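Risk mitigation, structural track. In case the binding assays with S-adenosylmethionine fail to produce interpretable data, a predicted complex structure has been prepared as a fallback.
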Amino acid sequence: MGSKQYDETADVYDDTLNVLTYARHAEEPTFRAVMGDVRGLDVLDLGAGTGIWTRRIKRAGAGRVEGLEISASMVETARERERGERLGITYHVGDVARGHEAVEAVAFDVVTGVNVLHYSASRDELLAMCRTASRALRPGGRL
Ligand SMILES: C[S@@+](CC[C@H](N)C(=O)[O-])C[C@H]1O[C@@H](n2cnc3c(N)ncnc32)[C@H](O)[C@@H]1O
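Fallback model:
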C-alpha cells in the first residue's frame, strides 16, 4: 500500500508538502522540538520518503544519517536531491516492518519516522516497525 501509493507521486511530493500550511506551522516546529539536539548524533530516518526530514536532520548537525523507505521512486527522488546537494546521506529501499540488514549492521543514537508508523496495517506490523527501530538503536538511544 505505502509503496504503490508513493511510487506514483514521488516526483511531485516535495511540491505538495511545500504548500501545506500545517507542514510549516505545525509539523515542522513540533517535530523539531521532539527531535531535539541531534548535533553529532547518528540518525536513522524511517519512511524517509524523498528525504525532506532526512536532509533537515543532517543540516541540523547530525553525524551519520541514513534513510529507509519502501518506495523505490521516493528513494530515487531522495538520491537525486542528494546528487544535487551532497550532504552524505545514504538511502536504502526497504520495508520498515521487515527490517533491513544495512541499517541493523550499524547502530544509531536516534531513530525518527515522520508520518510513517500509521502505515502499519495491524498491531503486529506496528510492533515489527518498532522492533526495527529498537534493533537499530544503541543502548540509551531514542525513537
Ligand atoms: C507521508 S510520507 C512521509 C515521508 C517523510 N517521512 C516526510 O515526512 O516527508 C510516508 C512515507 O512512508 C513510506 N512508508 C510507508 N510504509 C512504509 C514501510 N512499511 N516501510 C518503509 N517506508 C514506508 C511511504 O512510502 C512514504 O514515503
